[in-house]
Request: fold
Amino acid sequence: MKDCVTAAVIGLGRIGRTHAEILVSRVGSVRVKYAADAFLNEEMKKWAKELGIKGVTDDPEICLQDPEVDAVYICTSTDTHSEYITRAAKAGKHIFSEKPLDSDLVRLSGALREAEKAGVKFQTGFMRRFDRNHSKAKALIQSGKVGRGQMIRLSCRDTVQSPYEYLKVSGGIFFDMMIHDFDMVRFLTDSEAEEIYAAGGVFTDERLNDIPDVDTAAAFVRMKNGMLAVIDNGRQCWYGHDQRSEIFCTEGTVQVMNEHEDTVVVKKGDGIYAPKPPDFFIERYYEAYVAENQSFVDSILFDRPAAVTAADGVEPIRMAKAAQLSLEQNRPVKLSEITEYRIV
Amino acid sequence: MKDCVTAAVIGLGRIGRTHAEILVSRVGSVRVKYAADAFLNEEMKKWAKELGIKGVTDDPEICLQDPEVDAVYICTSTDTHSEYITRAAKAGKHIFSEKPLDSDLVRLSGALREAEKAGVKFQTGFMRRFDRNHSKAKALIQSGKVGRGQMIRLSCRDTVQSPYEYLKVSGGIFFDMMIHDFDMVRFLTDSEAEEIYAAGGVFTDERLNDIPDVDTAAAFVRMKNGMLAVIDNGRQCWYGHDQRSEIFCTEGTVQVMNEHEDTVVVKKGDGIYAPKPPDFFIERYYEAYVAENQSFVDSILFDRPAAVTAADGVEPIRMAKAAQLSLEQNRPVKLSEITEYRIV
Amino acid sequence: MKDCVTAAVIGLGRIGRTHAEILVSRVGSVRVKYAADAFLNEEMKKWAKELGIKGVTDDPEICLQDPEVDAVYICTSTDTHSEYITRAAKAGKHIFSEKPLDSDLVRLSGALREAEKAGVKFQTGFMRRFDRNHSKAKALIQSGKVGRGQMIRLSCRDTVQSPYEYLKVSGGIFFDMMIHDFDMVRFLTDSEAEEIYAAGGVFTDERLNDIPDVDTAAAFVRMKNGMLAVIDNGRQCWYGHDQRSEIFCTEGTVQVMNEHEDTVVVKKGDGIYAPKPPDFFIERYYEAYVAENQSFVDSILFDRPAAVTAADGVEPIRMAKAAQLSLEQNRPVKLSEITEYRIV
Amino acid sequence: MKDCVTAAVIGLGRIGRTHAEILVSRVGSVRVKYAADAFLNEEMKKWAKELGIKGVTDDPEICLQDPEVDAVYICTSTDTHSEYITRAAKAGKHIFSEKPLDSDLVRLSGALREAEKAGVKFQTGFMRRFDRNHSKAKALIQSGKVGRGQMIRLSCRDTVQSPYEYLKVSGGIFFDMMIHDFDMVRFLTDSEAEEIYAAGGVFTDERLNDIPDVDTAAAFVRMKNGMLAVIDNGRQCWYGHDQRSEIFCTEGTVQVMNEHEDTVVVKKGDGIYAPKPPDFFIERYYEAYVAENQSFVDSILFDRPAAVTAADGVEPIRMAKAAQLSLEQNRPVKLSEITEYRIV
Reply:
């Protein structure tokens, strides 16, 4: 057994840097040999140097060709994930890819087949599964202590809307944001989606109509095991990243409340101020990202299956497609209608 | 102006007695002259005597013919509401009718026309509008302090399921239970429903399949002003009457949390026990019932419009019908499809 | 057995009116025949008329001489309580007296002996014992479920300071405010105070130095059963009547949190606003006052001992005297040093 | 300026290991060259090896003589702190010493004079100052937004009592446990203690009478700026490390609530289970330890004053001595009576 995994991070945007920083400072038995970005700039170089990463490059191929590299983190823009997955697979590297894997399921299917053929580990970046609260919730449900699941309610609202330029290429709220909730629904119910009905509207940014996209959305998911899920998302809520989950079961309800920046309550004549949730999802889920990365590194070290599989990456995309179709046609859409590619 | 309203309560089940007790002990400027029930029994007689109501009768007509009686409370079974509304209107009595007014909209339309013709006050028993929390929430929304409404989430779960015999004649979860949420949606959005999609399932009591009914239901409501509402209901949750509301607006979110039996937290080695919500909705909304009754009495004394109108009683029934149709046909149903009767 | 108690309320200030209103509207089997105040004014007359009390008088003796009157509520200023207790006892009336009974223990001892000699019911107005939270806390402790008591923490802060003119004659913070906490300590520990150490200071109103009084005070109480109690009081906290209690026991801790005006949480960019406690103690303890009055009326109807005895009224006064002495001399003071009068 | 601090940790008990682990994995610009313990055992060796610390020794002098070592962490038993402070100072090493510095103030005074003479950085290990909640509370108070401080309430209870053998040499509850609260009182009030009155008792472990020590204690502190502080401590509360603080000011109250293990609420028929605080103070304050260590390392790198000074280490010991004396003599004790050594 190796005693250390050598990793390369490809794509040095916000999420790529977060992974690199966590790998360097919080995860054991891993070193980051490369930080690569095809559009490498001075700021990225400075960041990498401060972090102590020696191999800074604008040519990801260098990472892929280095035999010392065991694993690559694909943190580039969504439409390039499949290409990098394919190249990394062919180079025999273990792969961690950020979500959503790809909005083009046909293209993605080719890439994932390469990864399977290469026999490398493949993990999809759904960090919420590693959140202490959601993993506790899942354990509670699986324990049988709250009976059988009936309904799930998931809520997610960003503090402020992402930049319009980003949203234009994000693939829409179902691919960009609700995809985490679709993942959670599968995770918490241990079942697959059967049918989805979605609704949405533009309330805060009229420009979204031109994309077209919505800033407020809700979806109903009917699972194969009979459970119902109700999801709502909002692009902007001002008071912090608001993400709560609730699982209503036959013998009890499990509620996952928000995490908060602190535990300080201030009581004054003009009101009682309670703690706020953190503003950004990366801050909110920082420890989940740490656990996610440790899990991926350990799956390589101990040759264990990755905790979040390729199928776990594909199904939420199919759900997002079904939701998008439902929104467009205003009718419930069966998952079986999404035929491009399915693993499960 | 009269200085006291004379009332008769018709129908001495749980809710009729609650109204009578509240009128006797908590509402000013009203006296209860009659407590009537067509199926009067010894227990009802005993209860009325203890409460100090002199006129106990199994013939509601006696109340209607007594010129001293100003107002009647119709608390009989749902399928008799229209008949009593008609008879009370013809007798010139002000009318408070429990919800749902009637599941037969054609029959109801005739009754409400009589009430309108008679020029009497008519109030529908949607007490949740008088709850201190929901009325504060509405005031906040109307104040503009949280911006424009985007989405509403309503959750309601009974502690334990009502008796099967009761559910058999209840008209189903949308008429019996979610009708309060349909009312809340209209109340909190100041808009009318455009379209509804509903889903549901049987999780805890297989017998419901024979009615047929469901024990767990969810509904999406698209309002004419563009707002979305997501409602979920459950017949049984064990830990108290769980009713929470949330209104997500462009500049803030208003959350109505549960009321609790007390404020005592017990911390022990085996867990930290937080206060529970009250078990029964009557207990939960007791003060709302008081305010509802005071409002009705005051509307008569001061000749003001009733706070919850006939239209407020009819529209949620139409929404329940749309939800029922949606559940049966698994498609979004427009309110315009419910054509039997509409006021708005 | 009588089926109704006839009561007279003497002293029509805020607390006297509260009792009268509760007796009229919320308590069963009682009627208020008289509302008396030696300094009767037009406003009082108007108030009594609206409440439907016929016997309005500036001569309390009229109530005491009326053989129909079973019970009197003594809600006059503290320094007249003993006199009215004596007169009521001699007239054979059951007595409910507001707290503190009297700051002059010698005078009080004479009055209470008269009440005892007369064999009438005597109840001291410590309403906090009837609060749903504190009575639940006591039941929990007595149940043994949290083990044996170790320490009690009590906190009480008024929203805004009472008027200076009132404070000048209030007897000081220990007599006027902390007396409720002294009562709670006895109630929750089922033990008597052995020794008290008190501290305090003037932080918000320099004029209090002239009385002299303090606006912020803390006291340590060592109980005969070994338990410790820590009490803090403040005259002004701005954000609502803040009263919390905590009982730390060998197998768990019982916390009594604040009651709140509502359950509405408002989340905005500038903060998350939680519900406030009610501003006034009467609002906070309204239901406790109702229960207290029902208990007193029932003790008469069913000839049961009063729930809060004369001794329960006297001991907190002795504790207040010990605390006052401790503050003046900056030393722990034994209750045995307070020799004027003791019942326990 | 150096770009990395070389540290040695002396004393490899629970707290020493925690510091070492944090320095290795969470603090930037520092390396741990030595882990030393005069009573080095196999388990410590294994632990150090896994952590990647090369210099494992049973002779602390080796660390002190190595010119590469910039700073030492003194995590040995309390009675040896002064000796190691002296030796480290003479060797010219920067010093981080765990609390309490020493119960023998005369001995400590000599050691601290050496440190001062040597001109090295000296930081006392009061990590609670670096807790996100307490530092926010302090900032709020200093901002003036809540007015002027009146009273502080601090509560601290361990989940389970430390082993008896440990308690026998701990110096008693005031030195071992309440010392953190004494530190907090100074930190939050920006003032010094004038007088202390303390009380306590044995409730859960009779053996403590033989030490003698108490398992439950309370203390009143009167500060030079007039503020009052009320502290309570308990050795055992079962439901997690319960540490709450409250600062009551003239224009508002700041409450520091507990941190919790997660945000999961479970609602069942037998109760509503809220999240628990972590069981151990190290878990509770882990991020505070990280910040404390980063602060110490940065003070060396950037030649800034240490954030928690020698005086900050000495004064709480004097307060503990005053509290101990107060408990023994049952009287308020002035800090001026503790004459062995004072810095402030």
Notes: The longest strand of chain B covers residues 149-157. Chain B touches chain D at residues 237-240, 242, 265, 267-269, 271-276 (CB under 8 Å). Chain B has a mean pLDDT of 96.
